[in-house]
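Cast an eye over this sequence plus tokens and walk me through the fold:

***
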Amino acid sequence: MKFVKEQDWVLNHLNENNIRIIDCRYSLAEPEKGKKDYLIGHVPGAVFFDVEQDLSAPVGDHGGRHPLPDTAEFVRKLEAAGIGDDTTVIAYDSGEGQYAARFWWLLQYLGHEQAYVLDGGYSGWIVGDNPITKDIPNFEKAVFHVNFRSELMADVEEVREAVKKRDKILIDSREEKRFLGIEEPIDKKAGRIPGALNKPWMNGLQNNKYLPVEEQKQRFHDLDPESQIIVYCGSGITAVPNFLTLKEAGFKKVKLYVGSFSDWISYEENNIL
């Protein structure tokens, strides 16, 4: 797969100067757990990035539950981790897929194409009996230049137009119960954006590993590959595995609605089904 690295590849490149490993472990139920787990043990050379503190901005009136981080601040953190223009970056989480994918998408959006996710995550790394460490690495500060790829992101105005004109495909990446409005454990309102299709993000993985490209193509066989696609979820994180697998399946025009449903419902005038 183009954006997914296997354990063996990472193991064989661990000690290379232009390789950087990013630990993105996180628990919605226990936000501090990721950092605690990192301190207990991590992939050698891995730098920890917290989903709330590093990969998101503070929550405001709009923008959803995980707004994009401030670009300048995020870039400073990347540079402090030794990530520069020529650095190959591999992100991992516990194995769920969405948190590593969040980091991957952020780098893609900033124009850094040499970004990947570790298939199987940390749980797969452990099962593979690969080395771990408690050592906290230090790297020489790098220089990271931003080249925004605006074609990867949709905002609320574009989604409103898509709902009105029905000229783009909206994909709701949440599980079916939330999509149908039967159950809503997190957000203040239940339902979905009008016109959206349901493609649960977790169906693109099995045992914490991404399904092969041909199986991803089968997941999306009912979609027009020439259409503009906008993926969303609750807060813009679990939609990213769908973004990644759509790209793997050959879809060229895919955008992430970063604010997602939690942003959509923050506007009283927006309809929900």
Summary: The CA atoms of residues 31 and 52 lie 8 Å apart. The first helix runs from residue 7 to 13. The first strand starts at residue 4 and ends at 5.
